[in-house]
Sequence to fold (747 residues):
Amino acid sequence: MTERQTPLLDELEKGPWPSFVKEIKKSRKNPMAEDLLGILERSYREKIGHWKHGGIVGVMGYGGGVIGRYTDIPEDFPNVAHFHTIRVNQPAGWFYTSDVLRKICDIWERRGSNITNMHGSTGDMVLLGTTTDQLEPIFSELTELGFDLGGSGSDLRTPSCCNGQARCEWACYDTMGACYAITQEYQDELHRPAFPYKYKNKFAGCPNDCVASVARSDLSIIGTWKDSIQIDQAAIKAHHSDINMVDDVTSRCPTGCMKWDGAKLSIDNANCVKCMHCINVLNRALAPGKERGATFLLGAKAPIVGGALLASVMVPFVPADEVVDTIKELNEAIWDDWGENGKNRERVGEYIQRIGMGNFLERIGLAPVPQMVIHPRTNPYIFFEASEEE
Amino acid sequence: MCADRKTDIGPPHHDKFLPPIIKNNYGKWKYHETPQRGVLLHVGEKGDKLWSVRAATARIASIETIRLFADIADKFSDGYLRWTSRNNVEFLITDESKVKPCIQKLEAEGYPVGGTGNGLTNIVHTQGWVHCHSAATDASGVVKALMDDLFPYYHDKELPGKVRIAFACCLNMCGAVHCSDIALLGVHRRLPAIKHDIIAKQCEIPSTVAACPTGAIRPKTVDGHQSVEVIEEQCMYCANCFTVCPAMTLNDPEMDGLSIWVGGKVSNARSEPMFSKLAIPYIPNEPPRWPTAVKAVRNIVETYAKGARKFERVGEWIERIGWPAFFDQTGIEFTKYHIDDFTHAGETFKRSAQLRH
Ligand code: SF4
Ligand code: SF4
Ligand code: SF4
Ligand code: SF4
Fold:
């Protein structure tokens, strides 16, 4: 096959940043990659995309994990007439060995476009572009290698986590362990969409939230601690000379609960809100406390349909060794209620806005606590229950 | 079907892919430092040392590149590597003498090392014209042009704090772009074009009507076809209708483009997580290198670099100086589009006389 001319895309081979055009060109001995270059050059020229809505394709017995994709100009680009995406559930923390990556590449070289995303937004390894007839063979080779598909559509989306205790001193619970356990527990919910809309669990080891769980997950599990920040006073002195203890540390504490007297750092831990700033800055001297666990927040989502939401507090503190069981309890209680009563394409966060947080808490069996709100309501239009009439 | 068809096995356990040093120090890391940009050194309680060398990728990765990374891992990190949540690749090295050669090799192959600490890291982004039907703009191309331009802030130049940029090519926002220091978001600005002749065949009319958050869609018979109409004043070009009904398309070469949002964050450090807020409502699509968008982002980054205090994120800097000062210092025009008019609009109105004059 002769190589297409791509003058516009060629402009994106220039410059120091890794070039996606080079990545596609590296793959172009595969005719799908060649046609992808062609279609993309066309989009760059016409300023419009050339992909149609996904059709329903997949592997037998699964409702998710494959996104059907077809071009609207197959006559010009027959090799991407069908160009389906496969979401492969990533290992927790995105750790790999060279050996397993080569095996995945070999499968994809034989059966797909040679192009991937490492990784997609939800966290999956994304194999970008294949045809319907290849789906079952790819699936069987992937499972042979010990991999499985991720979620898509109105199901439990592939859970994802930060690398937590594997490589971070701040992790307050085992994010990777929890992510793996939850993913394994809910294989059916992940592979067979049966919810009103998508549902995500994301696991961050501390309030730095490196996986953006508070913005992206219906149930966000963020590591935290209950007791006092551990301080190594000697290490403070040894700390980087570029840190000013007042300007950079104590005066930046959101609750003003730290004091530096020139020789000793003291923290009024009862007023520490576990924001992580001082620990981030003085990471050789300070560490989260020893009584560790997680805060559970619920209801984050992007704008579609009714507007974007950040997650809000559901359970202020769960001890580390109870995190996985608590996730299961909450997930299942939420699915029982929202799964039954949520409208089509209504995320949990929107469902709560519709029925009211107070009602929702009753339905899932959680007691209201003041940590759930910035402040109590200011509006006096209270829906008192009829039974409370004297 | 063969009897031994495996299903629902889930992902492999991560233990299979963890280097011995990580298994030995799991949950027992003491601290980390950044010996140079792009390198993290984690030290365990017993003194074990792990160097992670972080390199940028384009997110789109050819299998040739993954094989190259596998070879690099074999040579420098005993075959162990991982990806970050922001599409960087990291090589997990236990032998300090291999750190420099690993960096040299990666940079020679075109995968620059950087992205740690206060500054820029990779831009999380979406599929764009490469693979999505909804895209109001391309993703990879804008990201490439932006990172070429801002490259020093990834590679060696510091900023006051971390700056997280995210990109989504439509309002579906795959990824967390709504809580980023700087977010670029593809927008449509033309009414859905309705294919009246086929809509009843392709779509369910009631669910199409129900998909609209503003109730702009009404059933209507057009030229004898069962179809819908869109009330122009109520349409906010969100493409919810297109998501459920392919016969209502919003893509348009001249009207589509980008918007820019600033001041969001997800970390709890100092201030609570916040949404990104509108800075620039519309920039046209200018492939292949989107010069206007690139210039606009650079302006925001540089104004922030000049004005922010150490550690301050973009949102914290703006909250300290006030939004009027942000528009003043960046020279960005404030328009009626900056004032919210959707469900919770009133919450963002200023209701006090506390102003800087
Ligand atoms: S979220 Fe916290 S524990 Fe997890 S990687 Fe980030 S800083 Fe470490
Ligand atoms: S973690 Fe945050 S709130 Fe707690 S003492 Fe440190 S800076 Fe203050
Ligand atoms: S943000 Fe929109 S256009 Fe971009 S990949 Fe996601 S759904 Fe597609
Ligand atoms: S684009 Fe959005 S607002 Fe406009 S008709 Fe479609 S769903 Fe309604």
User: Anything to note?
Assistant: Residues 141 and 288 of chain B are 7 Å apart (CA to CA). Chain B touches chain A through 118 residues (CB under 8 Å).
